[in-house]
Amino acid sequence: MLRIDSLTTDHGQVRAVDRVSFRAEVGSCTAVIGANGAGKSSLLRTLSGLVKATSGSASWGDVDLLKLPTSEIVRHGVAHVPEGRSVIAELSVEENLTLGALWRGKDPDVAVTKSEVLDLFPRLGERLKQGADSLSGGERQMLAIGRALMARPKLLLLDEPSLGLAPIVIEQIFHTIDTMRKATGLTVVLVEQNAVSALGIANHAIVLSLGKIVASGEANAIASDESLRHAYLGY
Amino acid sequence: MSTLLSTLIMGLSLGAIYSLMAVALILVWRSTRVVNFAQAGQAVLSTYIGLEIHRMTGSYWLAILLSIIFGGVLGGLIDLALVRPLLRRAGSGPEAAVAPVIATLGLLAVLQGVSGMLWGGELINFPSAFSTAGLSIGGSKIPFSAFDLFTVGASLAVMLAFSFIFQRTGLGLSMRAAAFSPEVAQLAGVRTGRVRTIGWSFAGAAGGLAGVLITPTTFLAPNSLDLLLVFGFTAAVVGGLESMIGGALGGLALGFGLALVLQYAGSSYTFMTAFVVLLAVLLLRPQGLIGKRSGRRV
Q: Which end of chain B has less neighbouring CB within 10 Å, N or C?
């Protein structure tokens, strides 16, 4: 289980994450929604060790996420796909995928993971030798997620996978995430501005505003709350 | 044989050594974003170590091997003891860009000072395993010795080994990933600090080899490799600073160019020529002559 208690992160003078507490059960999908600047990305970046927390605690199972550097957190089953289709443009598609499993060394299961990832995203399989810079936006996002899955994570932190993508591509990516979670028992924390899509595949949701949790609950309850929609979700 | 052709042949072995130095500087630049001025000092100290080994054992091969190993260890230690703490303290402000460069300048003085204290300031002859007299082909002598042939071969072998490591191994993939995008590399599990230290180590080893290869022609003194630093840096800039192949080709081009200057204008003009080339490239084509639009290729 992911346990976050009173987690606080400062970004310079700004309190980006303000005493956030929540739990995510193994195999669940938690949507973290809110406007631009609500602290959603800072929350994920704190969990993967990219930024240091000011106070509070965050643990995945018995792993204290606030104690480990980023490169070690992924070794404990937590993979983070940051905002902005984070692939390495100078490497080929295949190299980006290989990179995700490098730390697993000579584990023979790496080949199995790779074929699973290519089953999820067949278009990557057709473009293995191409430079990642030649991919479309949607394909880049698929590659970024594929790279994270190569680590065979138990907890996947996804930051705005829909950003800047066409609706049909968004639907495809969300469908893949949903299917994969249900099939493998992966735990997902999904940060999104696109609340409709995120709430569609989430069990639980928390709404952030200026770093604080302003609402939380079942995803469909949040989705049908008129006042929340007007105040924070903008639809 | 025509003078032009023999001049170009002479440029080949010079170019090979400049390429090594350029590749060393590029390795550090790509992994740390630091122009490592101490590279010349590291190479000098490594070469003195080789000289000392040669005096003790009489074996040239042991000397060259230990120069390379010492260069590698020294490079790694500099990253661990100097650059890593500096980067940690400087954070990401403007001082993070300036502090390590100034530190490498200071380190250059320290390394040269230490070399001077231990071995004195006078020029020392460094042995070579092969004759430095020109080979003769079909009865005519060419300005290319057996040692030049060894220089070109050894440089080529190092370049090929580096390119194999970079393109075909997991370590190389980590190094490229860490250079292009440290954040994504860390998220993928790459221990970027360790990978950077290895980069410094490779650079130090290449510098050590360059020092051993150039000293039979230039002699050895604490500051005898300063020019090599300037020429290596010029070659790296000509090649676009990001690309190892660019740096290698830049080194060869500069070798040919400076050999021509040496032949037709005299040795006092080589330094000036290198500076003019350096300034011209930085002003007119900062991405390098060989580098493509983005210049970020390996």
A: N
